[in-house]
Design goal:
mainly beta; Ubiquitin-like (UB roll); 6-stranded mixed sheet; 1 helix
Length: 145
């Protein structure tokens, strides 16, 4: 893990959505499991080989790392981060977990998409952006993936 990784910018309107084609305005209120992340201030640490380390980046540029299971969904992650909101993110605090959205590779993740479904590597660090947003954007008609 290094601190010199380049992360994509969130500027512009090219952000699409990943996940099911259910109503994009649906709130992530159905997080079913209680997930307890392992957080750390250390830059170097061992990531369990059966877990995924998420480095979450806020719009402000602040980052924090959390460890999750591949079966954890974007909704589970949002709830866990909200429940364990880092003290140094106080200025960026939100009123409820349901407005927290994850962005991976330029696309919003629907609340039911699991980390395993994304094919994220176990025992490694994956970078995602975490943004407050009430609704997901409509699918981009130019997105032909």
């Amino acid at each position: 893990m290094t601190t010199s990784e380049t992360v994509p910018s969130l500027t512009g309107s090219s952000v699409a959505s990943l996940g099911t084609s259910e109503a994009t305005s649906r709130q992530c209120t159905n997080a079913k499991t209680k997930v307890t992340p392992l957080t750390s201030q250390k830059i170097h640490r061992t990531i369990p080989s059966d877990k995924i380390n998420l480095r979450l980046i806020l719009v402000s540029g602040k980052t924090k790392e959390f460890i999750f299971n591949p079966s954890d969904s974007a909704g589970d992650i949002a709830q866990t981060v909200f429940d364990n909101w880092p003290a140094d993110w106080k200025r960026e605090a939100v009123s409820k977990a349901e407005i927290l959205r994850l962005i991976y590779q330029g696309r919003f993740l629907h609340c039911n998409v699991t980390l395993g479904a994304l094919g994220l590597p176990l025992g490694k660090t994956t970078v995602m952006h975490l943004v407050p947003r009430d609704n997901l954007p409509e699918p981009n008609s130019q997105d032909t993936d």
